[in-house]
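A quick word before the example. In earlier lectures we treated sequence and structure as two separate objects. From today on, think of them as two lines of the same record. Here is Trafficking protein particle complex subunit 2 written that way.
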Amino acid sequence: MSLSFVITTKDDDPVFSATYSQNDRDDDYREQNSLDQFIIYAALDAVDRVVQVGGDKTSQHLFLKKVDEFQGKRIYAYMTPG
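And the structure line, produced from the sequence above:
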């Protein structure tokens, strides 16, 4: 099991990225890390959709909850004002 954490700018430029895993010594970890990064950056489109929906109540909150899911991996988003 792994946890990936990414901070991006409003233009989706990465500022910080980290992956935490129980097993980080084999090739599977590196391959999984690449897949996790792909999933996260693909989920940025889902974040944009949630934010751009004018009448959606969740777009008024900073914590957007689960915005996407891929192969059992859940993607949660938190936004900062500004």
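Notice the following. The CA atoms of residues 28 and 47 lie 28 Å apart. We will return to this example when we discuss secondary structure assignment.
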